[in-house]
Amino acid sequence: MASERLSCFDRTALELETALRSGEILVVDRTQATAARRQAFGTTEAPADILQPPRQEDRIDSIETTLTRATQSGDGRWTFVLADGATWRQVDTDRVRFDNRAGEPVRVRRGAMGSYLLVVGHSGVVRVRRQ
Question: What's the predicted TM-score (pTM) here?
Answer without folding.
Answer: 0.67
